[in-house]
Amino acid sequence: MRKHLLGLILFAGLILAAIPAPAAPREEPREVLVLYKGSSLAENSVSLFREGFHMPANYLGLLPRYTDIETSPLPAPTALNRVRAVITSFETETMDDPNRYLHWLNAVMDQGIYVIILGHLGCLESTGNTPPSASLLERTLTRIGLTRTDMPSINGTLIQYGTKTDRIVEFERKLPAIPPRYDGFKAASESEVLLSVRRRDRPEADSPAIAITRTGGFALYGFIYWQDPISFKKQWYLDPFTFLERALRLQGVPAPTPTTLNGSRVAYSHIDADGFSGVSRIDPGRTCGEVMNDEVLTQTDFPVTVSLIQGEVDPRYAKTDRHEALARKIFRIPWIEPGSHAFSHPYFWNSEDEKTAARYREELGYSQFGVDIPGYTTFDRVREITGSARYVSTLAPEDKPCRVFQWSGACDPTAKDLAEADRAGLLNINGGDTVLDQEHNSLFTVAPICIEKGGHFQYFTGQANENILTNLWTGPFFGYRNIIETMKRTESPRRLAPLNVYFHFYSAEYPSSLKAVQDVFAWVLDQDVAPVHTSHYLMMARGFTTAKIHRLGKNTFRISDYGRCTTLRLPHGGAFWPDLQASSGVIGYRETRQGLFIHLNPDKHEARLVLTDSPSSSPFLEQATGTLENIQISSQQITFRYTGHTPGRVVIAGIPSGTDYELFSGTDRAALTPGTSSLTITVSAPGETGVRKR
User: What is the tens place of the pLDDT at every residue in 567-621?
Assistant: First the structure.
């Protein structure tokens, strides 16, 4: 009997040993480390990745951080456990110590970290005493997916295109008829070549220019973008979205996005304080601040963040209490929240950079301080940021402290400035200047969500302000109306940015400029959006930077630390929907032209997303124009607390045709409009709402 029992135990043990253990949760790293050479960049310019690829990287859920290899040491490869890829963005082939760099790059690949080469390899020549080792270079090229087999050539009579995947390599502009160069490489057999150049005299000599490789990918100089030789405007040859997505194996990985709230495009507004005390030509008896308050702020029921420059408003410096009285009046408007535009409105923030200071003084005629405050001659970031925000808070109702700091002038805060804003508990915004229209007809002009500086993030605006569209306020003064075109183009075919009605008080100087602001507001109010305050959007953007994604299985993910960024996006083509019964912390989804937006429960700190191959057959949240808390959805009853701007709309999908519902709470704040498969609830005021099946 004991032998028989022992045999059963051993047999069971063999069976259990044969069953593979559940895979450990594996983080999908969101950081990418971008390497560049600062000395090779033209004055006041940035690297190719920063200018062009950063925005698509943010769109795909990635967080770039930058290292100038000429001024900063390369991090230890073993310390890059949160890094998905190393991306090189080099303008030249020279390097001080190419062998040290090549050894480092191989160690990075040993860690399983992807490598993407943009532009030049960056290490074919040495500026020091030791040239690159031929064997080390060959081994590195092989791992990248390349082998040098021929001499490079730029002879247009000898070269022509070979492989050309049009939908990826002719994105905004056709490639030139004659290839700019032939590099003499051969692609590894496992690489997917998207573009190649071959010799006419030797058709077998096919050199890849853009490819997806086993270790990442590469796109070589001359084949990434076109640049106008006079205006220096750029357009893409390469589709940066598809290239990054495929090279970094992001297909099917959900991307956090702050552009969307419960399926609706986020819309917010903020005013930079410039011109608050200026005289309006519409009515010389009133300031621009007074005209803007009377004609826009009190007349437009929309969340607006209104900033002040302390030195312009504070009676201790302004020598009048007229402006402070107006500020108090504005902050009492229910849909207005206060913001700070600094103490003195610095035109540039890097006070320690004498080169920058000289450029502003000599080329632009600007001093550092936009407002001349007697006795204030030395830049003080604490006074500019923390002190000004505290002052603004004294003018607002107690339940509306100043939480938003709006960068002034060049909007170029340093890491120290960002750290001060974070230390003070302030959310920051400005910079980016996105314009996408017929004149600025390239995604190169679309700013990313944010940029990291020294461990802190600067958050950019959704679209540019009127200063850009009026040629620095020289006219035409109705130019801000054209921002509507940018708002449309940053929505389709991809939702690249939220809607942001962003302007200055000086737009109340002329009738045409004021009318332009009113027209933009009217257009935004007519869109299917989720209106939020700037502070709410910035908390969503902050959640975008902190969110973590772990893969628990092939189609199962854990999302954590997302804060107020409660939307994930999956691209079209995956044929996957959330399995709402198997998932947790997921309250619904919405299918749109821009992809599938998945809604996370704002009451939770973590969500488990399980994807399935069929849409939900039970009721779920399809869309809302605000935040829903305490949401409970079943076939019998739906309850939630609506905390967004009102009137609002909540759409519950998956309702059986012909089902009838009735309100049982919030009867004075909601009306129901049943549809064929959805239930639309109109919310007239924040609070609890409940409906149940009759």
Answer: 999 987 666 899 999 999 999 999 999 999 999 999 998 999 999 998 888 999 9
Q: One-letter amino acid identity for 396?
A: A
Residue with tokens 């805060």: 413
Q: How far is C-alpha 443 from the geometric centre of its chain's CA atoms? A: 13
- pTM beyond 0.90: yes
User: Residue 511 to residues 281, 515, 517, 549: CA-CA distances in angstroms?
Assistant: 8, 6, 10, 50
The two beta strands, 114-119 and 216-220, are parallel
Tokens of 659: 């089902």
Residues 476, 465, 485: CA angle, nearest 5 degrees: 75
What are the tokens at 197? 């150049």
Confidence class for position 5, pLDDT limits 50, 70, 90: very low
User: What confidence tens digit (pLDDT) does each residue in 354-368 have?
Assistant: 666 666 666 666 678
Neighbouring CB atoms inside 10 A of 600's CB total: 24
> What is d(CA 206, CA 196) in angstroms, rounded to the nearest whole number?
6
Per-residue pLDDT tens over the stretch 313-340: 999 999 999 999 999 999 999 999 999 9
- The total of other beta-carbon atoms located within 10 Å of residue 392's CB is 28
DSSP-assigned letters across all residues of 47-81: -HIIIIIHHHHHHTT-EEEEEETTTSPPPPGGG-T
User: Which residue do the tokens 């062009």 mark?
Assistant: 52
CA 443 vs CA 185, 272, 494, 554: distances in Å: 30, 25, 11, 33
Bridge-based pairing of strands 548-553 and 26-27 is antiparallel
In DSSP notation, 259-315 reads TEETTEEEEEEEEE-TTTTSBPSS-TTSBHHHHHIIIIITT--S-EEEEE-HHHH-H
